[in-house]
């Protein structure tokens, strides 16, 4: 890649998620549908470009805040609603299943309705879900609120990525993508801090006030600053594919979440889920208008890079969900203190995203990606030793180290994976990436929280204290995560070295 890498990412990015972006010509508008006729389609420049960029980054900030809202609150959800940790974890799992399903639809929806309508709908969905969550009266109502919020994440993550790269200044594609990832990182950092503050001093329902306010502000700003950058088309939405995607992911993740409790039924659910997902994939190759164009996966470099991303992300999701449970359940901290302790490490992620993007723009993925995985793994091994001694400060420094490694790896892999695709497949590759991120996150969440919940229930039933049970479950799941990351490190080293040699890097 070398110096040419920075030029190729924006070049391929000028492909739309849905269609070719217009230069400076009027949109083909359609009256009587949705929110009415669209403003002119154009690629913004100057101040208009930066206003759009700010809206996109703010939108992903909202999406990341919605996604991580419950990470710090699982213990409180279990306590308030008198459910197990694995049941409380459905606040996360249900969210990611819906988000992953909507991501598969994002490109088709963008083709049909245009950027402005998609983004405004996302703000409205986030606002509605947040208000329902604030007013929720039982577990079911709050769960429904999370599913509505998930619509926003499913729309925003793939759409914003493509828009950022489409309007980015020439030669700054990977850097702007890294800044976008950094904005997500800021949301991930401040979500546990603010959520912990509200959870400790106000209550569980108050968590939903923050995304409600953010959604309202973005909705008002969006009415003024958002406009379409892609031509619209009469795109058909394949409802059967939507149902297959939702049912397949739901069945598999349900089985994985319960596998340590009821082995045989859980394995049956997982098998059914795999079969339905396989049917979904087969259907995408055999219908005229696939919901998710899977042809990028026929490119070996893209497929290998996405597999590495899934392994690494499934391992790193451990930090987002299990570290708060350790801090609250074992160390005995309040949700606010736990959130404050997590803010610093996650900000390390945001900073390293930017650093990783700059390095990749100049030098490519070798040795950046393997080095990032090594940093994550070293941090996790150190967490195992420090957590067993309840050395919380040292443990959080190790967590920060791992988060920094995550920031070096994931934006870099994403930009590198998209860079190998032909221009016409860039948008589909972006949607596939966003879908796989959600799937990897839900798999990691189901696996780790499911195992920890089973450990906690079993140990407490045998007379162990809550602190001891949480500590044992934390250590058990951490060893599994270390195993996953070890496999990812080996794969990343081979992948990055082989790819760099073939592309002439030294």
Q: Can you offer a commentary on this structure?
A:
With 506 residues, the protein is mainly alpha-helical. It has two domains: 2-24 and 42-237 and 291-502, MFS general substrate transporter like domains (Growth Hormone, Chain: A, Up-down Bundle); 238-290. Helix content is 76%, strand content 0%. The protein contains 17 helices and no strands. The chain has helices spanning 5-13, 46-68, 74-81, 85-88, 90-113, 115-135, 139-167, 173-201, 209-225, 239-258, 263-284, 300-329, 335-363, 368-388, 392-419, 426-461, 466-502. Helix 6 packs antiparallel against helix 9 (209-225) and helix 12 runs parallel beside helix 16 (426-461). The model is unreliable at 1-37 (pLDDT under 50).
Rg to the nearest angstrom?
Answer: 22 Å
Helix share of residues? over 70%
Uncertain regions spanning at least 5 consecutive residues: 1-37
Distance between the amino and carboxyl termini: 10 Å
Please give the CATH class of the largest domain: Mainly Alpha
CATH architecture of the largest domain: Up-down Bundle
Specify the structural class.
Answer: mainly alpha
**Number of individual domains:** 2
- Give the overall silhouette: globular
Estimated share of beta-strand residues: under 5%
- What is the chain-wise order of helices and strands? HHHHHHHHHHHHHHHHH
By CATH, the topology of the largest domain is: Growth Hormone, Chain: A
Q: Give the mean pLDDT.
A: 80
Oligomer: single chain
């Amino acid at each position: 890649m070398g110096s040419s890498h920075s030029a190729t990412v924006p070049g391929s990015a000028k492909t739309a998620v849905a269609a070719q972006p217009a230069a400076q010509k009027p949109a083909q508008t359609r009256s009587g549908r949705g929110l009415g006729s669209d403003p002119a389609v154009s690629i913004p420049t100057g101040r208009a470009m930066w206003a759009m960029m700010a809206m996109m980054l703010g939108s992903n900030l909202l999406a990341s805040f919605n996604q991580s809202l419950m990470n710090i609150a699982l213990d409180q959800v279990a306590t308030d609603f008198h459910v197990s940790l694995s049941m409380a974890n459905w606040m996360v799992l249900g969210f990611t299943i819906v988000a992953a399903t909507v991501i598969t639809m994002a490109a088709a929806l963008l083709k049909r309705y245009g950027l402005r309508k998609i983004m405004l709908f996302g703000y409205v969905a986030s606002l509605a879900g947040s208000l329902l969550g604030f007013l929720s009266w039982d577990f079911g109502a709050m769960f429904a609120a999370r599913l509505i919020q998930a619509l926003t994440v499913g729309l925003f993550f793939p759409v914003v990525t493509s828009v950022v790269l489409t309007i980015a200044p020439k030669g700054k594609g990977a850097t702007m993508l890294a800044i976008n990832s950094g904005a997500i990182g800021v949301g991930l950092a401040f979500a546990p801090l603010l959520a912990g503050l509200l959870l400790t001093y106000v209550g569980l329902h108050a968590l939903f006030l923050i995304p409600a306010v953010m959604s309202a502000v973005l909705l008002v700003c969006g009415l003024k600053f958002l406009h379409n950058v892609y031509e619209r088309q009469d795109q058909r939405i394949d409802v059967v594919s939507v149902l297959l995607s939702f049912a397949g992911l739901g069945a598999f993740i349900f089985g994985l979440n319960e596998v340590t409790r009821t082995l045989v039924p859980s394995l049956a659910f997982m098998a059914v889920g795999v079969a339905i997902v396989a049917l979904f994939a087969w259907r995408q190759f055999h219908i005229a208008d696939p919901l998710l164009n899977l042809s990028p996966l026929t490119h070996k470099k893209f497929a290998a890079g996405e597999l590495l991303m899934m392994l690494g992300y499934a391992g790193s999701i451990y930090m987002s969900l299990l570290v708060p449970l350790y801090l609250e359940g074992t160390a005995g901290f309040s949700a606010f203190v736990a959130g404050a302790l997590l803010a610093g490490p996650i900000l390390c992620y945001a900073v390293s995203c930017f650093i990783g993007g700059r390095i990749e723009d100049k030098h490519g993925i070798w040795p950046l990606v393997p080095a990032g995985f090594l940093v994550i793994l070293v941090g996790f091994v150190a967490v195992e030793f420090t957590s067993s001694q309840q050395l919380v400060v040292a443990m959080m420094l190790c967590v920060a180290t791992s988060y920094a490694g995550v920031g070096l790896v994931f934006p870099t892999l994403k930009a590198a994976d998209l860079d190998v695709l032909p221009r016409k497949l860039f948008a589909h590759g972006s949607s596939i990436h966003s879908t796989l991120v959600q799937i990897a996150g839900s798999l990691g969440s189901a696996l780790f929280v499911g195992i920890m919940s089973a450990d906690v229930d079993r140990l407490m039933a045998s007379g162990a204290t809550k602190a001891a049970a949480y500590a044992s479950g934390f250590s058990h799941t951490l060893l599994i995560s270390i195993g996953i990351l070890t496999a990812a490190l080996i794969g990343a080293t081979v992948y990055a070295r082989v790819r760099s040699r073939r592309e002439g890097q030294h």
